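Write out this protein's structure.
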Amino acid sequence: MARAKKLRRKIARWEELIAEHRAKIEEELRKPAPRRGLIEKWEKEIANWEKLIERARRRLPGKRRSRGGSQ
C-alpha cells in the first residue's frame, strides 16, 4: 500500500508541474517576442512527465491493462 501511495504522490506532483509549465508557455506566447527555445524546453519536460505518469499509473495496483498479448 505504501508503494501505491508514493506513486500517487509522484503522479500528483508531475501533474502540478505540467500545469505550471503550460501556464508558463501560455504566458511566454503572449509576449511580443516569445523565446522559442524556452518553450521547446518546457514542452519536452511536459512530454517526459506525461510518460512518467503513464508508467506510474501502469504500476498502480488494480490498474493493469491488457496489451493484447499473453502476459
